[in-house]
Amino acid sequence: MNDTHESSGSVGERRLQQLLGTADQAGDFYDRQVQPQLTGQMADFIARQTMMFLSTADAGGACDITFRAGPPGFVTVLDDRTVTYPEYRGNGVLASAGNITENPHVGLFFVDFTDDHIGLHVNGAARLRADEDQRRACPGLPVDTAPGRRPEFWVHITVEEAYVHCSKHIPHLEPAPRPRQRADRPRDGEYFVAPGGLRAPAYGPVPPAQAPPVTYPGGARV
Question: Residue ranges under compositional bias (Pro residues) (predicted)?
């Protein structure tokens, strides 16, 4: 049995597993798939990826998700319990990094849309390190993940669990040259804030009342 079985999963997901009768199925997944560190295959997979999705939350639990991209290996596997990647100057908001200073829990999601159509979840605890400090502690870090730019800092992540995301609903995508933008496309900063306000949805106004709790067989409510 994988030692992660008893420690995997939140209280909420285990409660729902019991209510919906999937506890044995989930236990089998924890035993076979959830790893407390990266396997060699996981490390090789990360080294090939050119993008990832990053989830963070602040101290109050308000969530944020973002996207990071770079050449293969822009996320560096330092060992089976540690990964790191550089952060560069962007829009100045620093939402993900700011969350990490309040709450170190992060989730990384890598997905291969082109060859193997498989995904990898990596959850862990992150901290921020200055570029010079990280390079001093970790010699051999890549220097060309963004040619001509120097990292503002690095995100240093201690892996707590890693597991597969199955291929069932992963679409097939092929890399292609970016087409020329259409002439009437708004600039990035104006794309979602065009004048005119929100148009009324076709289905009418959203009622203020919250949906009632879900009731499961046996009377349990969530």
Answer: 204-215
